[in-house]
């Protein structure tokens, strides 16, 4: 099996590459080749024994995508994209990468013809939804994004569904909840504090909580997100059609519950490193985000969330914590 | 007021042009200029006393759109598009006209800058919805089109919402029900019989009904559709945001009720010209279409459907019947 990953140098891309290398197989079929693409050259997985090709290219602005697709990968993980904040700040770049890039990938697949129909796993986002919301967003809730990023992801979902319906590819779109705990340095994303209030205290550093502890949100660990991707790649085609874009399950909890989990796992002294300093701008942005989902279809298709927020913290400690 | 209409040579485009010419004003402001664009040169309205510019151009493939927009029209009616059947048969053309054409129009508006923010009325379609459906499709039902046309319309809605949110334009998307009675010759559209079973018998000709009389569908007359467009153009901006794409109200009825209306208006002899000959292909296509809506938002914003199916037939007799 030949697997192609776009956005392979990103956090999820690297973890997915590692997972596939360790498994050595997908859906019980051995993996013999990985093609890894990103704007910066993706690292080669150390443990993988098959063939690896790495490509540094912009999805929308080069013919490298078409070349990679001409190698007829069996599964394509399309993770590449400009993130939410950047897509909002740079309108043209967001549309070029997230919309034109996705369309270029789909067109490259269609251009192969000759009954080539790869499984295409597309990472969408809960940013396709915009307030106001019902208490739990059902699977048939409309997409009314309140960001350009969410709009581009919603358009990607629509294209994926149409290209799949027409038989050009075999798509699955998965809407990821907010990923925590993200390893690495704090970033400027409005959602960054969700990782920060766990990661920084565990590293012996102070963290700022800019919203009220009553804020409710839905999360998945990077490990669970990679699990969703691998599960999506292995789903039988007829389990999905015609509605191929799915909200993923996650852990829905308050910030207070997240802090309580941290306290249980790491103690009072660590939890005390969280400083409350409400930021009205961040609070307003977060108020527009989805809180809770009823992802009945994804659950019935076997997608599994982390057990609870403590499991999310433990996944971070096992997979990423260096302390 | 300067008004720009794309797709001005189409059936709805011509009727909208006539209506605006007769009214001489929109939202109580006098209309002094009409710019009319289509792939074939649109006819000049005879009754209009202001300035008229007609343009024969392809929205996606020329810079005529940008030139028309540089004239800073106050209101843009974007009706141009490849219809459902053609978009399904010619994948590239559908995306080029319906997606790239719409994007080119939005980009032309954005390029003006300088606080230019026209009202942009976008004709979407109930084809953005795909089966299975609830008994009445609510305003917050997800868009899961089952045609490339429906996909392109759904993407147009998403772009319109984002360009409006960013302040580049002031959009309203209206999802039109199936328009009946269409004047003119029978066409090959799967929905063509809905007009045919009224129009042909009234003209003394036989018509074929290819589906069961129990089929339920939602309709608007061309006159009501033009009314929706004009109403959308005059809506106050803050009545709409942030959810600017609206399902229009229509007349929901069975085919049997439509035939009963025809019989009441034109008599038994006319209604007897409908011949039942079920076509399994058409029946299957129609089974995938939306049947009924609960367009609460559009109703609360003052959009008004025809009173009943008899009113739809009478509108045809008054506006288009030559017999």
What is the gist of this entry?
Chain A folds into two domains: 202 residues, 3-Layer(aba) Sandwich (Rossmann fold); 83 residues, Alpha-Beta Complex (UDP-galactose 4-epimerase, domain 1), CATH 3.90.25. Chain A is α/β, with parallel strands linked by helices and 323 residues long.
Description:
2 copies of one chain form a homodimer. Chain A folds into 2 domains: 2-176 and 221-247, Rossmann fold (3-Layer(aba) Sandwich), CATH 3.40.50.720; 192-218 and 251-292 and 306-319, Alpha-Beta Complex (UDP-galactose 4-epimerase, domain 1), CATH 3.90.25.10. The first copy, chain A, has 12 helices and 16 strands. In chain A, strand 2 and strand 3 form a beta hairpin. The first copy, chain A, is of the alpha/beta class and 323 residues long. The mean pLDDT of chain A is 95. In chain A, the strands form 5 sheets. A 7-stranded parallel sheet of chain A has the order 5-4-1-6-7-9-13, sandwiched between helices. A 3-stranded mixed sheet of chain A has the order 10-12-14. Chain A has a two-stranded antiparallel ribbon with strand order 2-3. Chain A starts with a strand and ends with a helix.
């Amino acid at each position: 099996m030949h697997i192609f990953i776009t956005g392979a140098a990103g956090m999820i891309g690297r973890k997915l590459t590692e997972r596939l290398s360790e498994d050595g197989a997908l859906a019980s079929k051995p993996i013999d080749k990985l093609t890894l693409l990103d704007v910066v050259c993706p690292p080669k997985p150390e443990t993988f024994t098959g063939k690896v090709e790495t490509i540094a290219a912009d999805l929308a602005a080069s013919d490298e995508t078409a070349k990679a697709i001409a190698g007829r990968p069996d599964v394509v993980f399309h993770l590449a994209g400009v993130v939410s904040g950047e897509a909002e700040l740079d309108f043209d770049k967001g549309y070029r990468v997230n919309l034109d890039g996705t369309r270029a990938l789909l067109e490259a697949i269609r251009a192969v013809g000759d009954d080539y129909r790869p499984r295409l796993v597309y990472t969408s986002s809960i940013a396709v939804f915009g307030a106001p919301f019902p208490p739990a967003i059902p699977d048939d809730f409309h997409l009314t994004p309140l960001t350009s990023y969410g709009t581009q992801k919603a358009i990607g979902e629509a294209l994926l569904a149409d290209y799949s319906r027409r038989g050009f590819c075999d798509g699955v779109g998965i809407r990821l909840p907010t990923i925590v705990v993200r390893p690495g340095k704090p970033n400027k994303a409005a959602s960054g504090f969700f990782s920060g209030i766990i990661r920084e205290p565990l590293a012996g550093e102070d963290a700022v909580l800019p919203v009220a502890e009553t804020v409710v949100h839905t999360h998945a660990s990077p490990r669970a997100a990679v699990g969703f991707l691998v599960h999506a790649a292995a789903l039988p085609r007829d389990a999905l059609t015609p509605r191929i874009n799915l909200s993923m399950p996650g852990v829905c909890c308050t910030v207070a519950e997240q802090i309580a989990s941290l306290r249980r796992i790491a103690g009072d002294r660590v939890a005390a490193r969280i400083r409350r300093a409400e930021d009205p701008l961040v609070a307003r942005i977060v108020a527009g985000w989805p809180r809770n989902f009823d992802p009945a279809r994804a659950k019935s298709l076997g997608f599994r969330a982390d057990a609870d927020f403590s499991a999310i913290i433990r996944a971070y400690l096992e997979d990423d914590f260096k302390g």
